[in-house]
């Protein structure tokens, strides 16, 4: 049998062949560079900066790890993840809203004054419910059509946030979103919040790891590879897809709740389609079907914005665009030379 | 072609009763009624487009029936869904070899052994008995050394063997093999033949589609000849192959 071992030989000039020579090292380098960059930055800019950076990282980390379950492991390329993030953020914002602030404005909007954690639980549950309804419909689609319908979901979610004024205050947004509180302990200090966000990230990563290393996780990868064949071997793939879709949406809503509470302000502009696409880029860059890859991708993404801010030739106001351009460029380069991403286990 | 139900349910592994499948205006399988013995090897032959692969797809629930019924263990079914076929004691391979490409050889076998129900699957970690069985299966198809490779990196013959190993791992009664010998090196062919013979000795029902008449003569106990989606003739191999209508329609001599 050994005679046929090994695939087709590739010509020497093939960049994939050149890269495969340093393949093991590339993963190591990606890890080293990004982690060193993060530490160096934090030390250079001081504690306050590091705390802010860490919190943004935790939120994007939850989003990218949860999206990787759907995109990298199950093979459903969803660009609608930001919708569930928004549901979580709005649920927390609306349910914790206070009368005092709203009285300043004309037009009576209901306020609830719930504590943060109760609102967060409802938000996560609501996102799960929304994902269930959306998922039942989306289960009929796959591949490129799935991308399109998930695109549609992102648009619908954004427009709901913008136009359901009686609940979301539309473009005006919701201010004074509550900070988390356990009994007398309010997470009002930035550091406290960072700890909470990192604990959430850790939990999400742990749950995701448990999922992908279980029998369930192995089935997800076979669904990604060949749904119909997975069915012939006794798996009800629609149930599996729905389950991971709902779990992933609930994780995104958790990130949303944290985000709303951290910024203390929620408006529809945080949940535009572009954010969703950036998120997909992070997941692909970091590596499909790799939880660590998603964490690293999120870290690189957060660092990229801050890093570009210090380049003398990039004006401050253009940092956002510069990051998107850099990300776009990196994505094209990666698709050309390393389609599975930095640490990926799967090629689109 | 007996019309009995219940009374002789042990005799056949699978039967079709007037099974019909249309694709647009084309009738791929036309009121087909066949019976597949409970044990031994049944070969299905027929010219290209005679409905062999469609029949396999109907028997494995990958296509819905447009008419008729499939009888499994004496129970008539008008609809079979793909995920139900392991429960009916059926598994299959594919003409175009459908493996789970971007996962390891090892996981390709593991996945058909583990828990099917969703919640228990979420809680199930890799079990020792699954590991042992995977090892045994990979060794029986000669793929143990390749266990960490991705399925996509295997050669065609190795893919074919792995797919057969995956079917073996299902440990069911009835196996549907769509062109199991096509494109195999002599050495691999011997391995596949050995596997099939061993399954026959275990008392399984093996149904295979093939164009290779020598192999059909060598291996099959029972032969079904299809033509234009209809049954031309079925019965004992030598007897069927000596019939003038078979010689005319299929062997083209």
Largest sheet of chain A: 2 strands, antiparallel
Q: Which parts of chain B are unreliable, with pLDDT below 50 for 5 consecutive residues or more?
A: 1-9
Count the strands of chain A?
A: 4
* CATH C-level name of the domain at 12-91 and 205-251 in chain B: Alpha Beta
Distance between the termini of chain B: 29 Å
> What string gives the helices and strands of chain B in order?
EEEEHEEEHHHHEHEHEEHH
What kind of oligomer do you see?
heterodimer
Strand order, biggest sheet of chain A?
Answer: 1-4
Number of H/I helices of chain B: 9
Residue-averaged pLDDT of chain B: 91
Principal-axes geometry of chain A comes out as: globular
β-strand number of chain B? 11
Name given to the CATH homologous superfamily of the domain at 12-91 and 205-251 in chain B? P-loop containing nucleotide triphosphate hydrolases
Proportion in β-strands of chain B: 15-25%
Compact description:
The complex is a heterodimer of chains A (348) and B (253). Chain A has 348 residues and is mainly alpha-helical.
Describe it.
The complex is a heterodimer of chains A (348) and B (253). Helices cover 70% and strands 2% of the residues of chain A. Chain A has 348 residues and is mainly α. Chain A has two domains: 69-271, no CATH class; 274-348, no CATH class. Chain A has a two-stranded antiparallel sheet with strand order 1-4. Chain A has a two-stranded antiparallel ribbon with strand order 2-3. The longest helix of chain A is centred in the first third of the chain and has 27 residues, at 47-73. The model of chain A is unreliable at 1-7 (pLDDT under 50). Chain B is of the alpha/beta class and 253 residues long. Chain B has a domain at 12-91 and 205-251: P-loop containing nucleotide triphosphate hydrolases (Rossmann fold), CATH 3.40.50.300. Chain B contains nine helices and eleven strands. Chain B has helices at residues 52-59, 105-110, 118-123, 128-140, 156-170, 186-201, 213-219, 237-241, 244-251; strands at residues 12-23, 26-32, 35-37, 40-45, 67-72, 75-77, 90-92, 174-178, 205-209, 222-227, 230-236. In chain B, the strands form two sheets. Chain B has a six-stranded mixed β-sheet, with helices on both faces. Chain B is globular and about 55 Å long. In chain B, 43% of the residues are buried. Mean pLDDT of chain B is 91; it is low at 1-9.
């Amino acid at each position: 049998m050994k005679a046929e071992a090994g695939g087709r030989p590739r010509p020497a000039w093939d960049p994939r062949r050149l890269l495969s020579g340093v393949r093991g090292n590339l993963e190591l380098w990606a890890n080293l560079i990004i982690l060193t960059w993060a530490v160096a930055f934090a030390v250079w800019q001081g504690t306050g900066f590091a705390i802010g950076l860490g919190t943004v990282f935790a939120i994007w980390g939850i989003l990218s790890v949860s999206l990787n379950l759907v995109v990298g492991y199950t093979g459903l390329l969803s660009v609608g993840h930001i919708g569930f993030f928004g549901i979580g953020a709005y649920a927390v914002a609306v349910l914790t809203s206070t009368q005092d602030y709203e009285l300043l404005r004309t037009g009576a909007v209901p306020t609830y004054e719930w504590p943060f954690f109760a609102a967060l639980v409802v938000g996560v549950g609501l996102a799960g419910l929304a994902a269930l309804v959306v998922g039942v419909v989306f289960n009929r689609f796959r591949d490129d059509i799935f991308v399109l319908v998930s695109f549609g979901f992102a648009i619908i979610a954004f427009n709901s946030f913008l136009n359901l004024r009686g609940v979301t205050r539309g473009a005006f947004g919701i201010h004074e979103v509550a900070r988390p509180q356990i009994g007398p302990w309010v997470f009002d200090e930035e550091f406290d919040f960072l700890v909470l966000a990192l604990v959430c990230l850790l939990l999400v990563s742990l749950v995701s790891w448990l999922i992908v290393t279980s029998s369930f996780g192995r089935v997800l990868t076979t669904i990604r590879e060949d749904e119909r064949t997975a069915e012939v071997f006794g798996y009800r793939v629609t149930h599996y897809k729905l389950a991971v879709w709902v779990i992933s949406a609930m994780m995104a809503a958790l990130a949303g709740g944290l985000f709303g509470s951290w910024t203390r302000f929620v408006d529809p502009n945080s949940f535009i389609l572009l954010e969703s696409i950036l998120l997909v880029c992070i997941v692909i860059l970091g590596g499909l079907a790799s939880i660590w890859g998603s964490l690293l991708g999120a870290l690189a993404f957060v660092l990229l914005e801050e890093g570009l801010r210090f380049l003398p030739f990039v004006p401050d106001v253009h940092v956002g665009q510069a990051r998107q351009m850099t990300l776009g460029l990196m994505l094209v380069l990666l698709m050309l030379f390393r389609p599975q991403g930095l640490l990926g286990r799967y090629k689109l | 072609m007996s019309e009995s139900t219940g009374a002789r349910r042990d005799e056949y592994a699978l039967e079709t009763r007037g099974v019909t499948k249309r694709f647009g205006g084309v009738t791929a399988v036309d009121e087909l009624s066949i019976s597949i013995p409970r044990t031994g090897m049944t070969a299905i032959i027929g010219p290209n487009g005679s409905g062999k692969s469609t029949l396999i797809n109907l028997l494995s629930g990958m296509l819905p029936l447009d008419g008729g019924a499939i009888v499994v263990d004496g129970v008539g079914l008008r609809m079979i869904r793909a995920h139900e076929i392991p429960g009916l004691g059926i598994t299959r391979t594919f003409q175009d070899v459908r493996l789970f490409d971007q996962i390891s050889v090892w996981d390709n076998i593991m996945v058909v052994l583990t828990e099917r129900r969703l919640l228990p699957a979420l809680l199930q970690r890799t079990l020792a008995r699954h590991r042992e069985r995977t090892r045994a299966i990979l060794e029986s198809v000669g793929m143990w050394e390749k266990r960490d490779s991705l399925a996509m990196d295997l050669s065609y013959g190795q893919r074919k063997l792995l797919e057969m190993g995956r079917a073996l791992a299902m440990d069911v009664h009835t196996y549907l093999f769509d062109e199991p010998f096509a494109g195999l090196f002599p050495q691999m062919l011997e391995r596949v033949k050995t596997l099939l013979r061993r399954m026959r000795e275990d008392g399984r029902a093996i149904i295979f589609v093939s164009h290779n008449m020598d192999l059909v003569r060598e291996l099959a106990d029972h032969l079904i000849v299809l033509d234009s989606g209809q049954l031309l003739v079925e019965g004992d191999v030598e007897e069927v192959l000596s019939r003038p209508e078979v010689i005319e329609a299929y062997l083209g001599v």
